[in-house]
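Subject: design request, 313 residues
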């Protein structure tokens, strides 16, 4: 997949099937749109093109650091590559950029610079200044500029339309099972293993503290999770703790740390990816270290049962 950040580096080609959007999460609803782009580009013997934005438009327009993203740009690129997208334009989203009218945007980026034979859109697609552009806008432009519109209907799960907002809500409630179903894969995050206070080692459960690769990346609500871990091209199972460790600290920042089954290597400074499989319980404050150890033993046993279950499937 070719990744562009500047229109000047893109060759104009009429036989292009494109789509545009933030695609945060690249969930199964997004996958339906992206797969259609790949499919249609093959039908017309053209190329597939995705336009996305970085940073997330809501972070810029709302001037907010509170919004947490589901996929970093690196994760997004990897997923698009796996789907079969051939070209990706990443636009630096700024307040200035957001002032373009829908017509100006489509004309400048797609019609004049990239080329456009077909555009694939979701059921509620909006774009341009104040999200003023929609399917009707595209229909007017299509009649004047000779391109087709392919509309993809929404996907639902349990009678709920799948959306990035609903996935964020599920993660904020610790429901990683629902998030995984909407994503079509386990929710994951990555980062570097850094030194902690070695509290877990003292309790018999050495953990790897993780500094997120992107501080805007969302982590699930506080609790204990059964996870798989990708480290140096190998996969392991483990238990993830997200929380402030209230048994030992009255106040502190939320730290993701993972205990890896049957593992005792020094991995400080290593890059690690954690895939969330199932939530075991909420974070709790215990009256003693021994009470916490007893619960951790039960968590470990539950995780071992889940490993057996996964290995038997």
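Subject: RE: design request

Done. Sequence follows.
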């Amino acid at each position: 997949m070719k990744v562009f950040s500047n229109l000047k580096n893109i060759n104009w080609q009429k036989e292009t099937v494109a789509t545009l959007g933030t695609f945060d999460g690249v969930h199964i609803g997004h996958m339906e749109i992206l797969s259609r782009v790949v499919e249609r580009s093959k039908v017309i013997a053209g190329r597939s093109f995705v336009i996305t934005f970085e940073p997330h438009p809501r972070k810029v327009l709302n001037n907010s650091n509170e919004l947490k993203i589901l996929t970093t740009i690196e994760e997004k690129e990897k997923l698009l590559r796996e789907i079969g997208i051939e070209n990706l334009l990443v636009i630096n989203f700024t307040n200035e950029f957001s002032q373009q009218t829908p017509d100006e945007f489509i004309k400048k980026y797609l019609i004049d610079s990239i080329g456009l034979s077909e555009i694939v859109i979701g059921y509620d697609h909006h774009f341009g200044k104040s999200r003023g552009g929609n399917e009707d806008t595209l229909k007017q432009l299509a009649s004047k500029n000779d391109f087709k519109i392919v509309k993809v209907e929404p996907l639902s799960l349990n009678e709920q339309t799948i959306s990035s907002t609903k996935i964020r809500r599920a993660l904020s409630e610790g429901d990683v099972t629902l998030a995984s179903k909407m994503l079509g894969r386990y929710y994951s995050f990555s980062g570097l293993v850094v030194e902690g206070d070695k509290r877990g080692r003292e309790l018999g459960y050495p953990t790897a503290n993780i500094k997120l690769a992107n501080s805007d990346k969302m982590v699930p609500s506080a609790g204990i999770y059964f996870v798989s871990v990708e480290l140096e091209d190998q996969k392991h199972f483990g238990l993830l703790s997200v929380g402030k460790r209230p048994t030992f600290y009255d106040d502190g920042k939320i730290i993701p740390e993972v205990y890896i089954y049957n593992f005792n290597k020094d991995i400080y400074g290593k890059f690690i990816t954690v895939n969330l499989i199932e939530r075991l319980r909420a974070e709790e404050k215990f009256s003693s270290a021994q009470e916490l150890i007893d619960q951790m033993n039960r968590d470990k046993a539950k995780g071992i049962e889940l490993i057996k279950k996964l290995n038997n499937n």
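The two ends are 34 Å apart (CA to CA).
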